[in-house]
Amino acid sequence: MDDAAEKITEMQGYKLHVIETDKYKTNTFVWKMKAPLTKEDVTKRALLPQVMQSSSAKYASTTALRSYLDELYGAMFYVDLAKKGEYHIISFTLEIANEKFLSDPSPLLKKGFELLTEILTRPNINGTAFDHETVEKEKRTLKSRIQSVFDDKMRYSSVRLITEMCKGEPYALEVNGEAADVDTINPENLYEYFQKAFLEDEMDLYVIGDVNEEEVKNLAGELLKFESRKPKEIIKQEGNRNVQVNEVKEEQDIKQGKLNIGYRTNIVYGDEDYFALQVFNGIFGGFSHSKLFINVREKASLAYYAASRLESHKGLMMVMSGIDLKNYDQAVGIIHEQMEAMGKGDFTDQELAQTKAVIQNQMLETLDTTRGITEVLYHNVVAKTDINIETWLNEMQNTTKEEIVAVANKIALDTIYFLTGTEGGQ
After folding, report:
1. pLDDT of residue 244
2. 293-297, 338-342, 353-357, 369-373 — which is least confidently predicted?
3. For residue 377, which phi and psi values (nearest 5 degrees)?
4. CA-to-CA dists, residue 271 to 236, 265, 342, 366, 414, angstroms
């Protein structure tokens, strides 16, 4: 486990996290930017990384940038957007070969740093505006990305559950922003937002690979400098305001119903009982041996799929299932029964042991990839904690049945969302 030990240094305007490991033949840079989710910025923020990764001052077209990546022994560069709790997170990832494994001695680590610096600090602009053509092209792509959620009914119903459940909370905002706001963005106001983000966001750089910490620190210090800032924190809101369960049914022309149920766990990453919540979710609906899968899908044959997942920073648990339209009441009933069983401790030692083993394997698999290591360690930035991986695994392994029952009794049903077919669609 030591190969995921991180060394953190305060740099100018950001934190540098170095993870020295000889597990990979590549070095990975992950630049993360975090800001509170807000309606006025969410769409600009979804567009910004796409525009920045398309070109830069030196590589003024996507073709030029991509062919330079090919020159760097087929380096990979991509961006990603995520919601963690009420924060909107942009990630830029660059994976580049480690020259130790090549016959060419050119300093690829330095070239990687230079390219990252180029993309982050020298965008493709004309005066005080991003390149017009790039912005228009990426706006079209963003619109179709937002539209694609409506076309994928599984994703659509997950998104709709969140919008119903978290009305009036920033978490209700979609990660890719809102279609109606895309047209309000132009090259000027997007460039203004770029400057604001790099001035105000909480920024972290992860460098993972067979690297030397001092060399990485020197390169980072020399190339990447930003204004120092005090990151904006969100005001913690009390969840679980719904005393009454909110039930929403929506009709579309579909053959298979989508039943999504949202709970408030009242537990977030960093809380003492967070590890027990992970094990709870594993027994309840996280895996193919879980209660939901076995009782709703296998035994009662009511669902095409049935599973649950956690949102660790917002304190939510979502159950997703695909059912025949006529089975709504029965499916809801059986899901409630599984939750009640958990609250009574109605699960075996074998279920507990099996779940811990699966979670452990899943965590070790996640840590096999540089992306996985970054995501696991980044939880600490979002939650302002410093839980290391060793602790995480030990705490989870030591979770008792009593702790899981206590967690089950903290969880409150909030919203039931059902996407059902019209009569003609059956």
Report:
1. 87
2. 293-297
3. -70, -30
4. 14, 11, 20, 22, 21
SS3 74: coil
Q: How many helices (H) and strands (E) does the chain have?
A: 15, 13
State the average pLDDT over residues 276-282: 97
Percent of the chain predicted with pLDDT > 70 = 96
Residues 6+ apart with CB under 8 A from 27: 95, 96, 97, 98, 108, 109, 112, 207, 208, 209, 210, 211
pLDDT at 1: 45
Phi, psi of 422 (to 5 degrees): -80, 165
Domains of the chain: 2-223 (3.30.830.10), 246-425 (3.30.830.10)
Q: What is the CA radius of gyration of the chain?
A: 23
Bridge partners (DSSP) of residue 320 are 260, 307
Q: How far is CA 405 from CA 63, 94, 138, 307, 353, in A?
A: 56, 43, 48, 19, 15
Specify the higher pLDDT residue, 14 or 306: 14
pLDDT in tens, 150-169: 999 999 999 999 999 999 99
CB 32 within 8 A of CB 91: yes
One-character DSSP codes across 175-230? TT--HHHHTT--HHHHHHHHHHHHHHSEEEEEEEES--HHHHHHHHHHH-------
pTM of the model: 0.93
Q: Which amino acid is at 144?
A: S
385 is written with which tokens?
A: 């904690």
Task: Round to whole Å and give the CA distance between 210 and 25.
Answer: 8
The 6-10 sheet, strands edge to edge: 6-10, 15-20, 202-209, 26-36, 87-97, 76-84
pLDDT of res. 426? 39
| pLDDT over threshold 50, residue 424 | no
Contacts of 243 (CB under 8 A, 6+ apart): none
